Each structure stands twice: as structure tokens, then as C-alpha cells.
């Protein structure tokens, strides 16, 4: 009576102990299922690897190209007027170009700008050549350092830019499909109201005028927001609350406009 069940049944009849650890509580798994499971896992890993290679995600892993990081930093410095002379020069040049386009055609402005740049570079080249001849020096080409700068794009850079452009294009097409086919009634109504407002904007301003206003806003709004951030955030919060309240009332009155809870 004191003998254990495992001793009576033998090693083949044990339900617990070593056989339980080896086979599991419900016995051993048939070899066929193990092979199928391993086959499915290997195929899944291969497909995931192929998808990652074809459509890799643009994650911020802290390994961005130095050129991109430097360009972003320079743009922020210009918009926030860290260097007044540089920001003023860029702002004035862009405004002069846009105002020139309001008076002349794109072809004329491009031709005049090209002639001005060529005149400046040719004049400087001739001046340095004459100066070297008079002083009997051999300093070489005045633009030698710029001519030696590598400006070609590598295959990796072109591939990265193409992938990003493809990602943005696919995202825009999916969003437009969602809006035009009324997947969400509220979002489609908001889009319709925005387009209706743009008809009045288009009647008052042309494209160049809007572009000029956008440039002025880009160079003025960041510095204004930086100086008066608390007050602006307070007013924006009030406006957002009112807008959300109105949208909620409209959404409650329109049948089928209420979004489904996820």
C-alpha cells in the first residue's frame, strides 16, 4: 500500500516525474506537428526578413546621416534667427526672388539669376588671373577648393530618398481614398469644409502671394511663439476646446457620424 503509482506502472506508465518534464502534461507531441510548426516558423522568419529588406521602416535609431542632421540644424537656426545676418540674408533673398516672380516670368527670372551668377564668377576668375600675373604668383584656380568638393549622390542615398518618397506617396493616396470614399463621415466633412474655405482664399490670393505669406510666417512665427509661448498655448487651448465642443454637437446630431469606439 505504501508503494507509489509510478512504481506499479513502471517507467512507461509514469504520468509524472521525468516523463512529465520530457513529454508534457498531456503526453508527447507527435513528430509530424513538431515538423510542421518548425517549418511554419522558418517560413515566417524568411518572409519577415524579405519584407524588412524591401520595405524597411524609417526608425530613428540615432544613426542619421551627418549631412541631414546638419541641414536640419541650419534650417532651425535660420528660422529662429540665431544668426541675424544669415537669417536676414536668406529671408531677403527669398522675398526678392518671389517678388521678382510676381513681375516677371519664371524663365526670365531664372535667366537673369544665371547671368548674374556667371558674371560674378567670370569677373572674379579674370581678376584673380590678372592679379597672379602681375604679382607673378601661382595660386592656382580660385575655385579649386569648391571644384574638389564631392556633390554626387550615392546609390544608398538615392535609394533612401526614393523609399521615403514612395512611403509619403502611398500614405497620401491612402488618406485621400479614405476621405473621398467617406470611411469616416466627420473627417470627410472637415475636408469638404477646408476645400470650401480654400475657394475663398483662392479668390483673394494667387499662389505666389500665398507663398510669400508662407515665407513671412516661417521666419516670423517661430520667434514670436518662442517669446510668447505661454500666452499662445493658452489661447490655442481655448480655441481647441470650443472647436471640439462644436464638432461633438454636430457629430451627435448627424446619424451615423459618431465614430466607432476601438
TrEMBL record:
It is found in: Endoplasmic reticulum membrane. InterPro entries: Reticulon, RTN1-4. Residues 75-262 form the Reticulon domain. Its main location: endoplasmic reticulum. Residues 1-31 are annotated as: Disordered. GO terms for cellular component: endoplasmic reticulum membrane; neuron projection; postsynaptic density. The chain crosses the membrane at residues 89-118, 204-225. It comes from the Eukaryota. Keywords: Endoplasmic reticulum, Membrane, Transmembrane, Transmembrane helix. GO terms for biological process: brain development; endoplasmic reticulum tubular network formation; neuron differentiation. It is a multi-pass membrane protein. This is Reticulon. The gene is LOC110497848.
Amino acid at each position: 500500500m505504501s508503494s507509489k503509482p509510478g512504481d506499479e506502472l513502471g517507467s512507461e506508465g509514469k504520468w509524472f516525474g521525468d516523463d512529465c518534464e520530457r513529454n508534457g502534461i498531456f503526453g508527447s507531441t507527435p513528430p509530424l506537428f513538431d515538423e510542421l510548426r518548425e517549418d511554419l516558423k522558418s517560413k515566417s522568419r524568411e518572409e519577415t526578413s524579405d519584407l524588412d529588406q524591401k520595405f524597411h521602416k524609417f526608425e530613428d535609431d540615432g544613426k542619421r546621416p551627418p549631412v541631414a542632421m546638419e541641414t536640419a540644424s541650419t534650417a532651425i537656426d535660420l528660422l529662429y534667427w540665431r544668426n541675424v545676418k544669415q537669417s536676414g540674408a536668406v529671408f531677403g533673398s527669398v522675398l526678392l526672388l518671389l517678388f521678382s516672380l510676381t513681375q516677371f516670368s519664371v524663365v526670365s527670372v531664372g535667366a537673369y539669376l544665371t547671368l548674374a551668377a556667371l558674371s560674378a564668377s567670370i569677373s572674379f576668375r579674370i581678376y584673380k588671373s590678372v592679379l597672379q600675373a602681375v604679382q607673378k604668383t601661382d595660386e592656382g584656380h580660385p575655385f579649386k577648393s569648391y571644384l574638389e568638393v564631392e556633390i554626387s549622390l550615392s546609390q544608398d542615398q538615392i535609394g533612401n530618398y526614393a523609399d521615403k518618397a514612395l512611403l509619403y506617396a502611398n500614405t497620401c493616396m491612402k488618406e485621400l481614398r479614405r476621405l473621398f470614399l467617406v470611411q469616416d463621415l466627420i473627417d470627410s466633412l472637415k475636408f469638404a469644409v477646408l476645400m470650401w474655405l480654400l475657394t475663398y482664399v483662392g479668390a483673394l490670393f494667387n499662389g505666389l502671394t500665398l507663398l510669400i505669406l508662407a515665407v513671412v510666417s516661417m521666419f516670423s512665427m517661430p520667434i514670436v511663439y518662442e517669446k510668447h509661448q505661454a500666452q499662445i498655448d493658452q489661447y490655442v487651448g481655448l480655441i481647441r476646446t470650443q472647436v471640439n465642443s462644436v464638432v461633438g454637437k454636430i457629430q451627435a446630431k448627424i446619424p451615423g457620424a459618431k465614430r466607432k469606439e476601438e
